[in-house]
TrEMBL record:
Family affiliation: Belongs to the sulfotransferase 1 family.
Lineage: Eukaryota, Metazoa, Chordata, Craniata, Vertebrata
InterPro entries (UniProt xref): NST/OST (IPR037359), P-loop_NTPase (IPR027417), Sulfotransferase_dom (IPR000863)
UniProtKB keywords: Disulfide bond, Glycoprotein, Transferase
Active site: 73 (for sulfotransferase activity)
Chain sites annotated for binding 3'-phosphoadenylyl sulfate: 73-77, 154, 162, 279-283
Protein name: Sulfotransferase
Length: 322
């Protein structure tokens, strides 16, 4: 009886659940934590699936035509959950980490991870570490040179603190942010090799991508705007993907308890969908001098980034954290 059960082919939905379970196990250091996925499942009232809760699994699996490549703690989960509300988008919920950790598994493995799509539907995934992976642009270009890339960027100082807060939640014994941020605090020497700081040198990483992709193929979403005006940022995302503007103000409401926008309850069923508690954590208090020092450190890189992208993200106007 056990063997018979093993030989029974999985239904499409079950297959995705099985793959997701596998991916979850593999995504050790991913920003998609089990906690977050569990929260989302609970919020959705549904099992882990490839796309919007009401979309059945029809069609065939395709390699993605669009990727959310970064940045970690930029608001990548919020963006993915909002865009997958669109009926013409099918996205994998977990982070496949194909172009960094799983590349040797091959393109067929990658395609198999994707949800099924119908003609005209866009297949997507998000893995924020791609943005800072040296080999990623070359590998992605080799797969599809016309792919669309999306990067959610956020004030690098706030991003660093958010990143640190995430690590702290898993390893409470780590040194303070103030200690980790400096190579030599007396000399004011920032430790740019600390990943929480290095990831925020956006200009440096972007240079690598521009060796392979024209700027027109990359959309930069403001992580700050995604919170204060999610519909506005989603309009840009849908235009960029060549989709009708289906996800609009109607889909969001500001949840006071969460302190963030959440997705409204779908018409048919289910609860409203806020992200899990690993998104929107309370940051620890950081010494304002350290914040100012970091802002000074990032300023030239931010300017370079604004110049490269032709967008002013206004991070210089903020008074530090949040
Ligand atoms: P904090 O937890 O530091 O507030 P990512 O999904 O890339 O890891 O990004 C996490 C960040 O997304 C959160 O960082 C939060 O600020 C931001 N965010 C943007 N929109 C959000 C939303 N609707 N709900 C929760 N967090 C959101």
């Amino acid at each position: 009886a056990r063997d018979a059960w093993l030989r029974t082919p999985l239904a499409p939905g079950e297959m995705i659940t099985a793959q997701s379970a596998l991916l979850e196990r593999e995504a050790q250091e991913s920003s998609t934590t089990d906690e977050e996925l569990a929260g989302r499942r609970a919020a959705n009232g549904s099992s882990e699936r490839g796309g919007a809760a009401s979309t059945p699994d029809y069609g065939e699996k395709k390699l993605p035509q669009a990727l959310i490549i970064g940045v970690k703690k930029g608001g990548t989960r919020a963006l993915l959950e909002a865009i997958r509300v669109h009926p013409d988008v099918r996205a994998v919920g977990v982070e496949p980490h194909f172009f960094d950790r799983n590349y040797e598994k091959g393109l067929e493995w990658y395609r198999n991870v994707m949800p099924k799509t119908l003609d005209g539907q866009v297949t997507m995934e998000k893995t924020p570490s791609y943005f800072v992976t040296n080999e990623a642009p070359k590998r992605i270009h080799a797969m599809a040179k016309d792919i669309k890339l999306i990067v959610v960027v956020r004030n690098p100082v706030t991003r660093a603190i958010s990143d640190y807060t995430q690590t702290l939640s898993k390893k409470p014994e780590i040194p303070t942010f103030e200690v980790l941020a400096f190579k030599n605090r007396t000399l004011g020497l920032i430790d740019a090799s600390w990943s929480a700081i290095r990831i925020g040198i956006y200009a440096l990483h972007l240079e690598n991508w521009l060796q392979y992709f024209p700027l027109s193929q990359i959309l930069f979403v403001s992580g700050e705007r995604l919170i204060v005006d999610p519909a506005g940022e989603m309009a840009k995302v849908q235009d960029f993907l060549g989709l009708k503007r289906v996800v609009t103000e109607k889909h969001f409401y500001f949840n006071k308890t969460k302190g963030f926008p959440c997705l409204k309850k779908p018409e048919d069923s289910g609860a409203p969908r806020c992200l899990g508690k690993s998104k929107g954590r309370t940051h620890p208090h950081i010494d304002p001098d350290v914040i100012h020092r970091l802002q000074k450190f990032y300023r030239p890189f931010n300017m370079m980034f604004y110049q490269m992208t032709g967008q002013d993200f206004q991070w210089e106007r903020e008074e530090g954290d949040k």
